[in-house]
């Protein structure tokens, strides 16, 4: 249900007319493949949900659409340059998109700004405009300013629009830092966190919006707060300025002169003890300044945590009393001189009631739980909480072969979203290899994880799932895997050969195949899974020099760990049958040939298509029987090969006269 709703949200956002353009000529979908996409919502990872939604979206684009697919963070960990246009803008090909999405995994960082910039370059936004649909679960982590870039692109061409799906963004501040991309380009921002929010977002974005009048130049307007109507100025007041109906502040801070496009704005001013809100209409003529009378006392809230001291990663209940205005929330914030961030990602909405349940941060120290009045962006209630250290440990062998199973004994909190996994040594705390992790909440002990397929230095990590704190780590050295293959040196194209292999079993998805020597590691034509020490491999239909391979599949992709050359001779066959038979008579046919799966013997007219058949039997033995056609005439007995890649599937013919 969640995947279908997200797909509908994406399509609705595309269908809604952009603020300054009617029909964008081309669209680029940007998909977040950062490491945090391995987080889960319910029983599915965000990666699975987003991948399925994008797949569904591409299958439903209107005929004639020209759409491309870009991803970031899918190839390398910790690389802010890992941005790739996977499918250039062009006619929609659902099968190509399906194949592309199935290969993607989440590995890297979140270069929002540079990915949008690269998509805009490919769209040639300055000349032609265009549309970007960004699907992300995180904020910029590579030092860029996506809000400033969005304004720059909109200024370059009013026919540019960006829609943003903020997937599982945790705090109002995070949402604001990506919503600005849409809001500053006339697009739609959708906060997609669960099924209910997705349904609501779908209803909002599906509403038709009339085309706006031509944009007028911004008006430079000042901000001033007074102690009530006509009262003295309050120079220490702070302001939040929002365009009416939007969620992201255009300004959040002290008084300033702002360049505001014409429109209606909601402006809130506040001090430590007073607050006021006005709605102002900005036109080309004015106003020169927006005056906000702070006529009301700043609301206050009281917070009563269930405990003044609590262990890291636990759940804390906080009873509260306060105004409960739209968007208000409770949040953990570090205190003291060493606090690096003003807030954490550990929050709860007041709309969910009292007491609120907040996950405690993983880093020990002094904190306070704050009640934040959303319209002012200001805390109006605080309660001190001390977070005590959590203990976690990992015990495993220091060395493991690539693709082997690593047994891990562990202790630590079974907090929802926390995980144990394997990551490259020195990589970021939230990074790990797809397929080499398990959720701590339901993990077995000992836990078995597959070692990466690439030799090298790695770490086993226990990571808290909300803020990415590493609770415990242990080095792991992965050594190269070794394998052997036994098979004939030559064989007929399209036939079957028996291939013996060691090890007898390998990681799930590992396989034996025959491919050209220069093929990529994960490439295959035909294959069997490496499970049991021996398999029957159908060979391709094209003669020449190939390579038998043992391909180890596992965390990090696929690697060839054994090779053996094999030469394929041209596929040949013989047919032995009477030269003439009576109509509808049973015809016994003896034959030789590659006897591959799907090969067959048939009787057809001489001009029939190569794969055409009427009466037939499968070519899996030495002899078979077909009933001759009922109509007298000249026919042809054929041996037809179904081997992949074969140039001419008819590898033997014999004339047959039906009397």
TrEMBL record:
Cite the entry's keywords alphabetically.
Signal
Whether Signal counts among this entry's keywords is yes
InterPro entries, per the entry: CLCR, VWF_A, vWFA_dom_sf
Residue ranges constituting the VWFA domain according to the UniProt record: 26-206
Identify the domain of life. Answer: Bacteria
- Leader sequence range is 1-21
The cross-references to SMART domains, in alphabetical order and at most eight, read: VWA
Please state what the protein is called: Ca-activated chloride channel family protein
Task: Give the originating organism.
Answer: Neoroseomonas alkaliterrae
